[in-house]
Design a protein that fits this description.
- The protein is mostly beta strands.
- The protein has a single domain, classed as Macroglobulin (MG2) domain (Immunoglobulin-like), CATH 2.60.40.1930.
- The chain has helices at residues 3-19, 126-132, 210-213, and strands at 26-31, 35-36, 42-50, 59-60, 67-69, 75-77, 82-83, 88-93, 98-115, 118-125, 138-155, 170-174, 186-193, 196-197, 202-207, 219-222, 228-232, 237-245, 261-273.
- The strands form three sheets. Strands 2, 5, 6, 9, 10, 11, 15, 16, 18 and 19 form a ten-stranded mixed sheet that branches.
- The model is unreliable at 1-22 and 252-256 (pLDDT under 50).
Length: 276
């Protein structure tokens, strides 16, 4: 798979996934375990974009820039990922007891402009767009997509320092610890946009194992006036949570539609519900 396709094609796939979670290609991170109790604690995080949820069937998730927030709240770059043909993997040491957030956060641009009487289109980073935009370009429009893909892992005992929001972009703040979640017990979450509660936000959860059920089993929910929601997951499983803002973004950028600059936000997380 050509690296440029992997890098820039991810954006379109993520936007498609957030628009139709039940059937689109989905980006995900999947830890080998969410609770690690070995004396020398390690976890492997796989990342991919797949049609079958948590199936390795399409293309790797490019995990450059993954950041780990440790049990003391400090952040550090994750070890380099090994990228295969259809998935990437990070082997992550967990040297301190407590909870870790593993997050891949990026900002990408889809844009268009007119130069020499022709409409040109672009997909890539903000820096590349600014560099490639020719002097004198007209009808410049761009959509900046802010995306967060994350999961949570605990070594030996849970704590909350890594769960604090960054107050940037679309985030889910667990009000119930994500590594203490059990089937048929209530989990509470709060969604924020740039640090402010996001009311009436649709989001969904899809359990793993779709290939064995034949149906997605998608659970659809909406935040309340405080940006919060409570729910119970019906069975022990890994769950893929996703949300997008605005929920129905409409057409992409072009010379004859949309504002000069707009923003979209995408969020996905992998959570585990343990047996009762």
């Amino acid at each position: 798979m050509h690296n440029s396709f992997i890098k820039h094609g991810v954006l379109a796939l993520i936007l498609a996934a957030t628009a139709g979670a039940a059937s689109a290609h989905r980006p995900w991170m999947l830890p080998t375990s969410t609770i690690v109790e070995n004396k020398e604690a390690w976890v492997t995080i796989d990342g991919a974009i797949s049609e079958g949820l948590f199936d390795v069937d399409h293309m790797p998730l490019r995990m450059d820039g993954t950041v780990v927030t440790g049990p003391d709240g400090s952040t550090a770059a994750a070890p380099a990922a090994v990228m295969g043909k259809m998935r990437s993997s990070i082997d992550l040491p967990l040297p301190k007891d407590g909870t870790y957030r593993i997050a891949l956060v990026s900002n990408n641009v889809m844009g268009s402009y007119k130069a020499g009487g022709e409409v040109k289109r672009f997909r890539g980073s903000e820096a590349d767009f600014a560099r490639q935009l020719p002097a004198g370009a007209e009808e410049v429009r761009k959509t900046i997509t802010h995306q967060r893909i994350e999961t949570f892992v605990t070594a030996h005992k849970t704590n909350d320092a890594a769960l604090k929001p960054t107050n940037t972009g679309l985030e889910m703040v667990p009000l119930t610890h994500p590594n203490d979640l059990r089937a048929n017990e209530t989990m509470r979450v709060r969604f924020l946009l740039d640090g402010k509660p996001l009311p009436n936000l649709p989001f969904s959860l899809v359990p793993g194992g779709v290939r064995y059920r034949g149906v997605a089993g998608e659970i659809r929910l909406t935040t309340d006036a405080k940006g919060e929601a409570s729910f119970k997951l019906p069975a022990a499983n890994m769950y893929w949570m996703n949300a997008a803002y605005p929920p129905n973004p409409g057409k992409g950028p072009g010379p004859d539609n949309g504002p000069a600059e707009s923003h979209r936000y995408a969020y996905t997380a992998t959570l585990e519900a343990l047996p009762e």
